Amino acid sequence: MGLSPVSQYLLMFISVLSLSRETKAQTAPAVFYPFGSVAGDTVNIAVEDENSTLIDLWRPFVFFGRTYNKTYVNSNGHLTFNQPSLEFYVKGFPINGSEDIIAPLWTDVDVSVNGIISYQQYSNGSVLTQATRDINQYFPYLSFTATWVLVATWDRVAYYYHSGTETSFQVVLISGGDLSFIFMNYGDCAVSYNAVQAGYDTVNSTAYFVIPGSINGSLIPNLVNSSNVNVAGRWAFRVDTALDNVIGVQMRVTSFSDLTESGNIETVLEKLQQELVKSGLPSSLKLNFRRIKKTRP
Question: What pTM value is reported for the model?
Answer without folding.
Answer: 0.77
